[in-house]
Design brief:
heteropentamer, A mainly alpha (665), B mainly alpha (104), C mainly alpha (505), D mainly alpha (170), E mainly alpha (509), C: 505 residues, mainly alpha, 2 strands, E: 509 residues, 21 helices, globular
Chain lengths: 665, 104, 505, 170, 509
């Protein structure tokens, strides 16, 4: 029997913070707001650590019912919390990174007029994210799922006076809703066929089922639908379009929600439902293909972006693609591993980028930066760490996780691996491009020239001039930098002499039930034949080479010969423009869905059916009646003789009728 | 057939004829007074059939009825002519086709 | 507690308290303030009394409770038969809950003919409660018709520009439709000799009504038409936008909050209760209409330039969910339908109040007139957002529970319908958030909007209860469902039989 | 004999009735109506209703028609102009009347096929008539007085010139 | 010997019971005569009040007399009148109508400067006629009574003699009325010819024992024309709007309720006593026509009186529906309908006659704009009456319609019912227009707002109470109607006593 860990505290604490700040924050001082927000976020983190400490002593999975929620007939959903290795990892990532970003935000948002609102939203986000992570059933997960959507809607649109920000928020929410639609249908299928949404019950019910080798069976359908939901939340093709726009939000938000935590919810959900996926190879293939394509596709777009945050955004999309690739090939633990490392280095990168933007007074265009490495050394170094990590330079977090994924991809299907490899090259290329453009060469901006106006969107500080960020922002950077350097060592594969602790840790979740894995599910690390490891080593080497190639290309184009890119762009302007305009996807969507919908609804449905058909019919009936009446009253000619005529005629008719009746009788 | 015997149907047909004439008069005459007279004609037709039926049934009720009809006719005549006078006073006409203020 | 002593008369008290208040109000002098306070007191009193129902309602127990059944008219055999079960219970409470809020929201917005306004409001409340409590078909029709005039007058006297058109349209639509129900009721009486719902239901179940099978379809349609117009089900919905746009705020609140529920309640109680077989037979096209209503209403709502029209069309969409749930004949579906009714009553009521508040400031509902309000009226904007989210169906808000259950039920019954209906979650997000963005976000385009004041105390008193209830309903729906569930189970009982009979054939 | 008389009186009736319709001056119509009534009195005699015949002459042909003539004189009604007032009356009423008349006539014939009225077949003398009038039909007889009263009042009200005190209300 | 003859004579003379059975008529007549007699001796101003009060007392006394009459049911005056709960019901109804009309006439007369004497006397005498119609069982008496009520209403219709409209209305009513009466008479004559009697009891007996001769059908048809005209049933309804528009408002109230109710009473007796099945279809069609034509015609009317004229046609249609229904239910429904219709229509016309003002200038819908403001109470009252006319609950109109429809459905007249309910749906529109005018429009032209005098308020109060009472507790009236209807119908089945020799059946039972 497990002790009661009061897991409910973890989500509820941030909620309390949100509530307090939300109702009282407007009046109270910034310090007070800060205290409340940090305290509750920190408390959640602390409690998560406590849980982690007592974790070893638990029988897993550990379920904690909390309260009744919905009861309808024999179908019921309750609030319950579900703790196992997977959710613990997520828990620590979310609370930990979340707390760091809270701290960072204090500095970043300090001058913003609605400081309290920001932290309210941030805490609210924590609440929903933790609900998602700790949920004991799909519906509760859906609460968090939609809730984080709401939080990101609010935070993206935080500077709502900017139309672009407001629209971005709305776009994010709606696109997410499209994903949620798929999720919902999946839930209905689960209810219909398994009568429950509790993870334990569903999985128990699913386990005995045999994998659906061919065709689209029930589990495959469910899997694909879940993937639709995941694609919405985790910005995969075709629903990734909201994430780049989401960069309208304050940078900490981008770091927390759109890099570290929320967008990874999809990966979490898929891994959580791995029991289903393992029995639905078709679904897994879909996941893998979508992941791979997204990874490549987004990376290519990343090349041509000039907005520093946009670059990171696309890189996020591409990295998420990696994670899905991993899940798709059944390497869930690898996916989660990458999720964690990505949380570290991408969070770091965003925060660093934020620090840069902060420094240059809200400028986001890399073409207006350059040579900053001297001016903001802390930022520079931390950013470097992040860049190296993501580029997959050996020894850093990103290297291990990405390598793991590629290796597993190869085991599943070499095309995945190839695409992943190319993507890796592109990744390191655009990341170093960013690095060079931002920190090397000479400064191309004009911040010294103009004083920085306070109520500029990126609520920066009062005085002009490029300067290092305050300590409260730097400290989180440093911590994350350290994490993204060493974070990978928890999962060093055996081939590199490590003993993949991370995977072993997650093993009970992913392989304990893996009674019958399809070809997609790889055998557990431990039982891996030795011959493989040499192979793996070779592939590792290849990816390392690729990473350095990327660096080299970036060095050549953006440091050594800065004029080249322009020429290249000019020479192959078609391709370049396509990239700059992100393959015109937004435009295509607008033309395909948005505009037809609006116009159709206006012209055909509202003006057409409603006005011209239904209403017209009704009103015409009315006018018709009046018209008839107008005609009928001419019977009332007012002439006595006519009246007598009517009477006489009527009398004649009745007499005739009566006689007929009489005779007929 | 015995010439001193008049078939009942003759009386009835006559009365019916008078009645129809009265109705026709009401329909085609323009002068209000004449129209009123046609009503009287109708009543006379009715009376005739009353009397005829009374004779046929050997029931005096018919004749009594005729008596009452006459009284009523007289009363109606008094009122009706008064009304006609009132109308004439306000409209200066006896043509029924011009008495159509109230219509539609 | 003397609760049990009250049980027999509580419904009578709750139903007629507002009427009594209204009659007293007639005698009061025309001092607006006193009138407002008085009617507030009356409505609050009614609400408090109505709370007796959920408190002493024996949960988990099926069948009708608090019933009172006295002969009213001997020939025809009409009874004063009132009672509530888990279904009508909440609709009564919803009514009594919304009315005080209506009084509050009209506190300053109604300046002239204040007395008439509140008299009509209170009379309307009585009629509405009566509709939900009466179990005698005649009594039901009696109250059903009695709602017409007060509502029409509220729209026609206190409405906006095209009020007359709207009022007449509303009146004629519902009047013409409901006479068919009258015909059906008469037929039932002629062949059963009673108006008592329960008795007739039993006779139908027993199949002891002469040539019922022949007429059943027509009777079903007779009832259904009346209800469908009230709901309003596509394509009978066109009166709704006009009525809403022209109606005064309180009118819209009660119209959307309660009047529309009369239709769905009627379907649930009478169409399903009396004609299970026909309901089953007609379900396909009815569900199709409901589906069309969901999507159509949402799409049309999306492109409305007028805030109130938008909300009105959103009601069409939401009520589509209700009908869909009802005619899925599943526990989840009916529970959900009931829950959507309540949730929609709360959240849409709130939306209309908020729209009314804005109209009071700027005398327009045109969305294009606004923009960037979030900066000038933060509290108002926050409240608005909260209600919008409830209406969008965010989990942990009332909207979600109902829609989820309805969709579950629909999906179980007819997967395709469930899937198509589920697109509703996307549409609702589209139109509401877009509207919210256009009204509250972006830069302030019109100087007038700088001047408008934030939500006042009285208005908060009117709006925030809605928000609170919306949240509670989302977090602890169990409180409601525990009463609804058994009643729904009852309502579905005949369908088990019908199904078995159908199998038997 | 009876038949011959019947035919004679009947001919007068028909002629008078038709003439009433044909004449365009009310006076002529009135006179022809009087003729009809007189002839009818004859028919009544044939049917043995002496009392009715007498009343017919005295009340009808006498009092009532005199009243008519008087009014015609009073209002000196002239020739009626044949205005086209009513199509309904001509195209709907007249045919209707004729068909109705024909049908009724057919029924009457069918009803009284071959039955004849014996000459002077009178169920009772005026004395018996009085018995009916003042005994069995006492109430109607008395009530008739109210009728007459109303008629008088009505005539007074409507025909009398509006007195100055009752000036046109405007 | 002499004693014997005396005895015979005393037998031959009417008994006290006979007089008791016509007590209301006697009382009303006496009051009418007194009023006539007083009229010349009083000066105008006093006569308005005094005679009015006298007329009212007369009506009330008449009501009291009905109570006395109700004491001894039975035939009176050698099968002339039949006192049963049926006739009592209609006596009460018509006399009450007269009372209300008198009440609501006070102010009107003052405003319109109408001579009081004849006016009130005529109302009372007319009431005598109506009352007799409801109790007469002898076609002769029915005819006389009919004529009394008709002629008095002809005269009353023309009472605003300075108004061309009024005179014209009177003329139209008179000419067409006597036209129709002639038809009725012809019907009576043929009926007499077919059965050899003019006494309803004997006629029905004759028809039930012997074969029904073809002539009866014709005669029934003719009689229906006459009565249909009086009740304004299509196709004999055309006179109604014109006459209602021209006649003085209170009198329209009277005409649309009193003579109508009486004529319906006669029709009931005729339909159920002279039971010719063919008539069913005639009534069916006539009912459907009346409803439809009435409602359709009213849709576009602009003059309120005229509008209500059309509406009264429609209501006649609803009432006829009841006739088509099965006897007992139908009769009771019809009686209830007549009563409630009287209540609401009288009320409506009382209000109208007040709004109408001098010379009845303000009777168009435009004049009713904004009356909700200028006369809140009166407008509210009128609204109640209109709602009742629509047939919305808590008003008598609702139950009236309800009973009629349910009677129709019970006797499987589904289609007629459908037509009826549809009509009541359509009909709602034009009543609603009036309400709309009063409350939802602002006054565009100044309509002088004079406060309603006490008498009018009293009249309105009576109507209002009746409307609401019948709308909430219809039970009492309805049950009375049912019991009397059952009597009526039962009598229509043959009872040998009804055909006993004439002279002997006048003893008190």
């Amino acid at each position: 029997m497990n002790p009661n860990l009061n897991l409910w505290l973890i989500p509820v604490l941030p909620l309390a913070g949100a509530a307090i700040n939300g109702f009282l924050g407007k009046k109270s001082s910034r310090t007070a707001v800060t205290t409340v927000a940090l305290f509750f976020a920190g408390a959640a983190f602390a409690w998560a650590l406590v849980v982690a400490a007592r974790f070893s002593s638990l029988a897993l999975p550990h379920e904690e019912p909390f309260a009744h929620w919905i009861r309808s007939g024999n179908f019921s959903v309750d609030f319950a919390f579900y703790l196992d290795q997977l959710s613990l990892v997520m828990l620590l990532i979310v609370t930990g990174v979340g707390f760091l970003i809270h701290v960072y935000s204090v500095g970043y948002m300090w001058d913003d007029p609605s400081y309290y609102r920001f932290f309210t939203y941030l805490n609210l986000f924590m609440f929903f994210m933790l609900t998602l992570v700790l949920a004991g059933n799909y519906l509760q997960m859906f609460i968090g799922w939609e809730g984080v959507g709401l939080a990101s809607y609010l935070l993206i649109g935080f500077w709502f006076t900017k139309d672009s920000a407001a629209s971005a928020g709305k776009k994010a929410f709606i696109v997410n809703r499209i994903g949620d639609f798929g999720f919902l249908i999946a839930l209905f299928l689960l209810i219909k066929h398994f009568g429950s949404l509790n993870f334990s019950q569903v999985f128990e019910a699913v386990k005995p089922l045999a994998p659906e080798a061919a065709g689209v069976g029930l589990l495959t359908t469910i899997g694909i639908l879940l993937m639709v939901g995941a694609a919405g939340k985790s910005a995969q093709i075709p629903l990734y379009v909201w994430l780049p726009d989401a960069m309208e939000g304050p940078t900490p938000v981008s770091a927390l929600i759109h890099a570290a935590t929320m967008v990874t919810a999809g990966v979490y959900m898929i891994s959580r439902s791995h029991v289903i996926f393992e029995r639905a190879p078709g679904a897994l293939t879909v996941v893998a293909v979508i992941g791979t394509l997204t990874a490549f596709f987004a990376a290519t777009i990343g090349i041509a972006q000039t907005d520093i945050k946009k670059v990171l955004a696309y890189s996020t999309v591409s990295q998420l693609g990696y994670m899905f690739m991993a899940c798709g090939v059944g390497a869930f633990s690898a996916g989660i591993f990458h999720l964690m490392t990505h949380a570290f280095f991408k969070g770091l990168l965003f925060l660093a980028a934020g620090s840069v933007i902060h420094a240059v007074g809200g400028e986001q265009d890399m073409r207006k930066m350059g040579g900053l490495r001297r001016k903001i050394p802390w930022t520079f170094w931390t950013m470097t760490a992040g860049t190296l990590a993501i580029a997959g330079i050996p020894g850093l977090a990103g290297f291990f996780s990405k390598d793991e994924i590629l290796w597993r991809a190869y085991q599943a299907n070499w095309t995945y691996w190839l695409v992943g490899l190319i993507t890796a090259f592109i990744t390191s290329f655009y990341m170093f491009r960013l690095w060079f453009l931002t920190f090397f060469g000479e400064y191309r901006g004009e911040v010294e020239a103009r004083g920085h106006d306070t109520h500029d969107a990126h609520g920066g500080h009062g005085h002009g001039g490029i300067h290092e960020s305050p300590r409260v922002m730097v400290v989180p950077l440093v911590i994350l930098a350290i994490l993204s350097v060493i974070g990978g060592y928890v999962g060093v594969p055996a081939s590199l002499g490590g003993s993949n602790h991370f995977e072993r840790f997650l093993d009970p979740v992913f392989h304990s039930q893996a009674t019958s894995g399809g070809e997609a599910t790889a055998p557990p690390e431990g039982r891996e034949p030795k011959t493989e490891s040499s192979n793996e080593l070779m592939f590792t080497g290849i990816s390392v080479v690729v990473a350095f190639l990327g660096f080299g290309a970036a060095w050549l184009l953006y440091y050594r010969r800065p004029e080249l890119p322009g020429r290249i762009a000019a020479s192959m302007s078609g391709a370049y423009q396509t990239l700059v305009h992100k393959y015109y996807v937004d435009e295509i969507y607008a033309a395909l869905f948005v505009r037809p919908l609006i116009n159709g609804s206006t012209r055909i449905l509202w003006q057409g059916v409603d006005r011209k058909v239904i209403d017209a019919a009704v009103n015409d009936a009315g006018y018709g009646a009046e018209h008839v009446s107008d005609e009928a009253r001419h019977m009332q000619s007012g002439n006595i003789r006519s009246y007598a005529g009517w009477v006489a005629a009527g009398c004649a008719v009745i007499v005739a009728f009566m006689i007929w009746m009489g005779v007929g009788r | 057939m015995n010439p001193s015997q008049v078939p009942l149907s003759y009386y009835l047909l006559l009365s019916g004829f008078l009645f129809v004439c009265g109705v026709l008069g009401f329909l085609i005459k323009r002068n209000i007074i004449t129209i009123f007279m046609s009503i009287e004609l109708m009543l006379n037709g009715v009376n005739l059939s009353f009397v005829a039926f009374a004779a046929h049934w050997h029931a005096l009720a018919g004749q009594v009825f005729v008596f009452f009809v006459m009284v009523v006719a007289a009363a109606e005549a008094a009122v009706g002519l008064a009304i006609i006078i009132a109308v004439f006073r306000t409209r200066e006409t006896l043509n029924v086709d011009q008495v159509n203020l109230l219509k539609l | 507690m003397n609760g049990d002593g009250l049980n027999s008369i509580i419904l009578t008290l709750v139903t007629f308290a507002p009427l009594a208040g209204g009659l007293l109000l007639m005698l009061l002098p025309r001092r607006d303030r006193d009138i407002r306070i008085f009617s507030l007191v009356v409505s609050l009193l009614t609400f408090v009394m109505s709370l007796h129902l959920p408190v002493y309602f024996r949960r988990g127990q099926s069948g009708f409770q608090f019933s009172i059944d006295k002969p009213w008219i001997s020939t025809p055999n009409i009874h004063y038969h009132m009672a509530v079960d888990g279904i009508s219970l909440w609709l009564v409470v919803l009514t009594t809950f919304l009315t005080p809020l209506c009084v509050l929201i009209s506190w300053n917005s109604v300046h002239e003919r204040v007395k008439e306004f509140f008299i009509l409001l209170l009379i309307l409340e009585t009629a509405l409660i009566g509709v939900f409590t009466s179990l005698d078909l005649f009594l039901f029709y009696f109250f059903w018709e009695a709602t017409l005039i007060p509502m029409a007058l509220l729209i026609g006297i206190f409405g906006h520009e095209r009020k007359v058109y709207a009022a007449v349209k509303f009146f004629m639509y519902t009047m013409v439709a409901s006479v068919f129900m009258l015909a059906a009721i008469l037929w039932l009486y002629a062949h059963t000799g009673t108006f008592d719902f329960v008795a007739i239901r039993d006779q139908v179940a027993a199949g002891s009504i002469p040539n019922f099978p022949a007429a059943a379809q027509w009777l079903f349609l007779g009832f259904f038409l009346a209800f469908a117009v009230k709901v309003p089900l596509f394509p009978f919905h066109t009166w709704l936008p006009d009525a809403h746009v022209e109606a005064p705020t309180a009118g819209s609140v009660l119209l959307a909050g309660v009047l529309l529920k009369m239709g769905t309640y009627g379907m649930l109680r009478f169409n399903l209760g009396l004609f299970p077989e026909q309901s089953r037979r007609n379900a396909p096209w009815i569900m199709t209409l409901a589906l069309i209503g969901i999507i159509y209403g949402a799409l049309v709502a999306m492109v409305q330039p007028n805030m109130k029209k938008l909300i009105a069309y959103s009601s069409v969409s939401h009520l589509g969910f209700v009908v869909l749930g009802i005619f899925s004949f599943t526990q989840a579906g009916l529970n959900g339908a009931m829950f959507v009714m309540l949730a929609h009553g709360i959240s849409t009521g709130g939306l209309f109040m908020l729209a009314g508040i804005l109209h009071e400031r700027r005398h327009t509902y045109e969305i294009s007139e606004f923009g960037g309000l979030a900066a000038t009226v933060p509290v108002y904007a926050a409240s608005y957002l909260f209600i919008v989210l409830a209406s969008v169906g965010l989990p942990l808000m009332n909207g979600f529970i109902g829609e989820f259950l309805v969709l579950t039920g629909a999906f179980q019954a007819r997967p395709v319908y469930g899937i198509l209906a589920a697109t509703g979650v996307i549409w609702s997000a589209c139109y509401l958030l877009w509207m919210y963005q256009r009204v509250f976000y972006g830069k302030i385009t019109q100087l007038k909007n700088n001047a408008i004041g934030d939500i006042t105390g009285v208005e908060r008193l009117a709006v925030w209860p809605c928000a609170l209830v919306a949240l509670v309903m989302g977090v602890a729906p169990i409180l409601w469902l525990s009463a609804i569930d058994p009643a729904v189970h009852d309502a579905l009982a005949p369908f088990v039989q019908v199904a078995s009979r159908a199998v038997g054939r | 004999m009876n038949l011959a008389l019947f035919l004679i009186f009947g001919a007068v009736c028909v002629a008078g009735a038709v003439n009433l319709l044909a004449q365009r001056h009310p006076i002529n119509s009135a006179l022809s109506l009087i003729a009809v009534m007189a002839a009818l009195a004859g028919e009544y005699l044939l049917l043995g209703a002496e009392f009715v015949a007498a009343v017919q002459i005295i009340v009808y042909a006498g009092a009532v028609m005199v009243l008519f003539v008087f009014v015609i004189m009073l209002l000196n009604a002239g020739e009626e102009e044949l205005t086209k007032g009513s199509r309904v009356a001509i195209f709907l009423g007249v045919p209707g009347v004729l068909t109705g008349g024909v049908l009724t006539a057919w029924v009457l014939l069918r009803q009284s096929r071959g039955e004849t009225v014996p000459a002077g077949a009178l169920p009772g003398p005026p004395a018996e008539l009085a018995q009916w009038l003042f005994h069995d039909f006492l109430l109607p007889f008395e009530v008739t007085s109210i009728l007459v009263l109303i008629a008088i009042m009505g005539a007074v009200v409507l025909a009398s010139k509006p007195d100055p005190s009752e000036r046109k209300a405007d | 010997m002499i004693a014997h003859t005396l005895l015979a004579y005393s037998q031959a003379l009417p008994q006290s019971a006979d007089y008791q059975r016509i007590m209301p008529e006697i009382v009303l007549t006496i009051f009418g005569i007194v009023i006539m007699a007083l009229d010349p001796v009083l000066d105008r101003e006093r006569s308005q009040k005094v005679l009015g009060a006298l007329a009212l007392t007369g009506a009330l006394a008449g009501l009291a007399a009905v109570g006395c009459m109700a004491q001894c049911p039975g035939l009176a005056f050698w099968e002339m009148v039949q006192v049963d709960s049926f006739s009592v019901f209609f006596h009460v109804l018509v006399i009450a109508i007269a009372a209300v009309v008198i009440l609501s006439s006070y102010e009107y007369m003052a405003v319109q400067r109408i001579r009081a004497g004849e006016y009130y006397a005529l109302i009372l005498f007319g009431t005598v006629g109506m009352a007799l119609m409801s109790s007469a069982v002898e076609l002769v008496l029915i005819f006389i009574a009919l004529e009394i009520s008709s002629i008095s209403s002809y005269v009353l219709a023309g009472f605003r003699r300075n108004e061309a409209a009024s005179a014209e209305a009177s003329l139209k009513y008179f000419l067409l009325g006597s036209f129709a009466t002639a038809f009725f008479l012809y019907g009576v004559a043929t009926m007499f010819g077919a059965t050899g009697s003019t006494n309803i009891g004997q006629i029905s007996h004759a028809l039930q024992v012997g074969p029904v001769p073809l002539l009866t059908y014709v005669s029934v048809a003719f009689m229906f024309v006459g009565l249909g005209f009086k009740v304004a049933a299509a196709p004999f309804h055309i006179w109604t709007p014109d006459v209602y528009e021209g006649a003085p408002a209170p009198i329209v109230g009277l005409m649309s309720t009193g003579p109508k109710a009486a004529a319906f009473a006669v029709l009931l007796r005729v339909v159920y006593v002279i039971d010719v099945h063919a008539l069913f279809w005639v009534i069916w069609i006539s009912a459907a026509l009346s409803m439809t034509l009435g409602n359709i015609g009213a849709l576009v009317q602009n003059n309120v009186k005229r509008l209500l004229g059309y509406s009264s046609i429609a209501h006649a249609g609803y009432l006829l529906m009841a006739f088509a229904a099965a006897p007992a239910m139908g009769a009771s429904a019809a009686m209830f309908y007549a009563a409630s219709y009287a209540a609401m229509n009288l009320g409506a016309f009382a209000v109208i006659s007040h709004f109408a003002n001098a010379g009845e200038r303000y009777v168009t819908l435009e004049d009713y704009e904004g009356l909700g403001r200028s006369y809140p109470m009166l407008a509210a009252t009128l609204t109640v009456f209109l709602i009742s006319l629509i047939g919305i609950p808590v008003t008598s109109g609702f139950f009236a319609k309800f009973y009629v429809f349910s009677a129709a459905v019970k006797s499987n007249l589904i289609w007629l019912t459908i037509i009826g309910v549809l009509n009541s749906g359509i009909g709602a529109y034009y009543y609603l227009r009036v309400i709309v005018m009063m409350y939802m429009r602002e006054a565009r032209r100044a309509v002088p707002a004079t406060p309603a005098p006490f008498t009018l308020r009293l009249a309105l109060f009576v109507c209002l109470v009746a409307t609401i009472y019948l709308g909430v507790f219809p039970n009492g009236v309805l049950q009375y109607a049912q019991s009397s209807a059952e009597q009526l119908v039962r009598r229509s089945t043959p009872v040998p006593t009804a055909s006993a020799p004439t002279t002997t059946v006048s003893q008190v039972p």
